[in-house]
Amino acid sequence: MADPCVHATQLTFAAAPSGDGCLECLRDGTQWVQLRMCQDCGHIGCCDSSPGRHATAHYTETQHPVIRSYEPGEEWFWCYVDEGGFELPDAPEALSHT
């Protein structure tokens, strides 16, 4: 993993998850592979390996730069702007779907 980007210093960890699954996949009745959580607003979207790629679509629509894995046991972040992954040792424990 790379060093955290400038967007990492702006994270507040205040957003609550929008649900327990990808909002768009649940709405459309489609399946996801893994889930990601927007760190600006809490939107839960599916990863780029999923057919809908809804986490990236959310970034494209909102320009919210950082997502975090919403998978159990995963602690990493991804910045769309800087196209890099990172971990934050002092970040609150990651939330995940059940």
Primary descriptors:
98 residues; 5 strands; Herpes Virus-1; 5-stranded antiparallel beta sheet
Q: Would you write up a description of this structure?
A:
The protein has helices at 23-28, 54-62; strands spanning 35-38, 44-46, 66-69, 77-79, 84-86. The protein is an alpha+beta fold. It has a single domain (6-86), classed as Herpes Virus-1. Strands 2-1-3-4-5 form a 5-stranded antiparallel sheet. It starts with 22 loop residues before the first helix and ends in a 12-residue tail after the last strand.
Per-chain topology:
Layout (H helix, E strand, L loop, with lengths): L22 H6 L6 E4 L5 E3 L7 H9 L3 E4 L7 E3 L4 E3 L12
Antiparallel strand pairs: 1-2, 1-3, 3-4, 4-5
Rg on CA atoms, Å? 12 Å
The overall pLDDT average reads: 95
Count of helical stretches: 2
CATH class division: Alpha Beta
Order of strands across the main sheet: 2-1-3-4-5
Q: In the CATH hierarchy, what is the superfamily?
A: Zinc/RING finger domain, C3HC4 (zinc finger)
